[in-house]
Design a protein that fits this description.
The protein has 5 helices and 15 strands. It has about 270 residues and is α+β, with helices and mostly antiparallel strands. A hairpin with a 4-residue loop joins strand 13 (about 250) and strand 14 (about 255-260).
Length: about 270
């Protein structure tokens, strides 16, 4: 009996040590996942709402639509349509699904038009990402988007949302790099560098020589009574502070305070 135990104890000890070493090596690997790498590349937008409707609270990475065919619905809808992108082709939502959605909202909505509208994104439309989801087992990356109404000169702003499902070849997503996935996403939704569109001043070109004339400065931005929060952010950029008093909001900038009442400019100091 003693010999048996003597022979067994070292084996158990070795096995235990192996498990500890394996766990330690796994804990120390710390390599970012594909989901984490993509999340670092595509900053998600933060949306908010008040009595005037929905608005952008914090801008995300601005994207530009490169191909038509993405179908969206109003941001207020509880449902969302999914457009599939595979092998360079845009496949719109299944018509049967869209029709079922129309009938569902038509049955329960107070009015005939409420909840039934859809929006087809056009090439060149600007959007923000709302979510990113990696499904390695299905070789799918899902990117949620919402329209940037100020960028698209929409008046009045009617935010529309959609899901885009990027389908990769079977078994390829597990081995794909973040760069490979970004290249595929970029075929349909490219990162837009139009900083002026988001209220930021243009950057000087690094090639500009000392003897050359500097580029003309943009015209001063004008703030008027009745402007929305999105219009003010587009003109002045993000405020340093936001004071939220329900129907009344105050945007605090370095040398300016803008007061909104029910989502519209009421006073500027």
């Amino acid at each position: 009996m003693w010999r048996k135990l003597k022979g067994t104890v070292p084996a158990v000890a070795i096995a235990g040590a192996s498990v500890l070493l394996l766990g330690s090596a796994t804990a120390q690997s710390g390599a970012p996942t594909l989901q984490e790498q993509l999340a670092a590349q595509y900053k998600l937008v933060k949306m908010g709402s008040d009595t005037s409707g929905y608005s952008v609270v914090e801008e995300g990475t601005l994207l530009a639509v490169q191909k038509g065919g993405i179908m969206g619905v109003p941001y207020s809808d509880k449902t969302v349509l999914t457009t599939k992108y595979e092998n360079g082709t845009v496949h719109g939502p299944n018509t049967a699904v869209a029709e079922a959605r129309k009938q569902l909202f038509g049955r329960f909505a107070p009015t005939q038009s409420q909840g039934q509208s859809t929006h087809l994104f056009q090439r060149g439309d600007k959007v923000y990402p709302t979510k990113i989801e990696v499904k390695v087992d299905k070789d799918v990356v899902v990117l949620g988007i919402v329209s940037c109404e100020i960028c698209n000169n929409a008046n009045p702003p009617t935010y529309n949302k959609a899901n885009v499902e990027f389908q990769f070849p079977k078994g390829s997503l597990a081995k794909a790099s973040a760069g490979d996935v970004e290249d595929t996403i970029g075929q349909l939704l490219t990162v837009n560098d139009d900083s002026q569109q988001q209220g930021q001043p243009p950057q000087a070109s690094p090639e500009q020589g000392a003897g050359q004339q500097p580029q003309a400065q943009p015209e001063p931005q004008t703030i008027q009574l009745g402007m929305t929060t999105d219009q003010v952010r587009a003109a002045l950029g993000q405020p340093s502070k936001i004071v939220n008093l329900g129907p009344k909001q105050i945007y605090v900038y370095k040398d300016l305070k803008v007061t909104f009442q029910d989502g519209k400019v009421a006073d500027v100091q």
